[in-house]
Amino acid sequence: MGSRAPPDSGYEDRHHLNLAKCEMAYHAGMYTVVVLALPDVIAFDLATPVETFGRVRLPDGRPGYRVLVAGPDDVVDAGPVRLAVSEQLDALDRADLVVVPGRNNPLRPSPPSVLAALRAAATRGTRVASICVGAFTLAEAGLLDNMRATTHWLAAEHLAHQHPSIQVDPDVLYIDNGSILTSAGAASGLDLCLHVIHTDYGAAVAADAARLAVAPLHRAGGQAQYILRNRPTLRTSVLEPVLAWIETNAHRALTLADLAAAANLSTRTLTRRFAVETGQSPMQWVAGVRIRHAQELLETTDYTIDRIANQTGFTTTSNFRAQFQEVVGTTPGAYRTTFRL
């Protein structure tokens, strides 16, 4: 009869470390998570922390978190449903972690009482986390000033424009600044919750929470792989014709002079207009279009990586792989595995 292979040399150290973290949490008492329910809250964003933290169980069977839902109103609209809110804003005084879900209209001003409660919580040292476009609420409260933060990739430019002191990174799933945390769009809220559980209770408890959620504890790649780059829907009176031209000619070996000729502009003027209207150089825009075209082929065809590289305008397969990894944050093969039906 065969015997089971012995554990690796670090197994016992990691096992004792996880037990020690749980033991410390036992003595400190259960963590209290307050999920903020604002008017027009995104129901998915609110449900994610409620379910993820609410189902955490420690090795002895006790719950790891007490989860409360609080807000300025007794009832809030959440898209097609209305939700009853059981706690008022003073619940934030008892929180170890405050989670701020996104709202369907993230540009809608938040109630002053909510902003004051969030500032007070942060001043006390309470951890404050946002999910998806909940980052706009944290930014409105001034909690992200001069910090690195993330949000849904579709809203990242708006956040950076409205709050220029924030270093907005749309490529990651979440950012942990210690007491202030932000997650990227939608399902990234689950990644953030699992990260918090791992921080509070260690890998074993977090892994159990991930299994309950039927999700990986750590996802490969970041939000970068979900971004549709340099989409042809950008509307600009000056550049729109050349952007449309690039869409159908990106597979060619293009130069800056080719783009300028297509736009009927000088290379200097073209470069200046691209910087103003897209925040990129003309050739950076071309590279982004090529990456998007490659993503579409990876999702919808069985073409080899070599063929895709050649068909989308990259000079060599190795150049394509390197640029794809840099921009998307994962390899072409891993991207295809994730997104190909």
Task: Give a verbal description of the structure.
By secondary structure, the chain is α/β, with parallel strands linked by helices. Helix content is 45%, strand content 11%. It contains 14 helices and 10 strands. The chain has helices spanning 11-28, 43-54, 112-123, 135-140, 156-162, 188-201, 203-212, 240-249, 256-263, 267-278, 282-300, 305-311, 317-328, 332-339; strands at 31-36, 65-70, 75-78, 81-84, 97-100, 127-130, 148-149, 167-168, 174-176, 180-183. The strands form 3 sheets. It has a 6-stranded mixed sheet with strand order 2-1-5-6-10-9, sandwiched between helices. A two-stranded antiparallel ribbon has the order 3-4. The two termini are 42 Å apart. The model is unreliable at 1-19 (pLDDT under 50).
Number-wise, the strands total 10
* H/E series: HEHEEEEHEHEHEEEHHHHHHHHH
Strand content: 5-15%
Q: In order across it, which strands form the biggest sheet?
A: 2-1-5-6-10-9
Rounded to an integer in angstroms, the radius of gyration calculated over CA atoms is: 24 Å
Which structural class is indicated by helix and strand composition? alpha/beta
Tally of DSSP helical segments: 14
Shape: globular
Unreliable runs, pLDDT <50, ≥5 residues?
1-19
Amino-to-carboxy terminus distance: 42 Å
- Fraction of residues in helices? 40-55%
Q: Please state the average pLDDT score.
A: 88
Give the biggest beta sheet.
6 strands, mixed
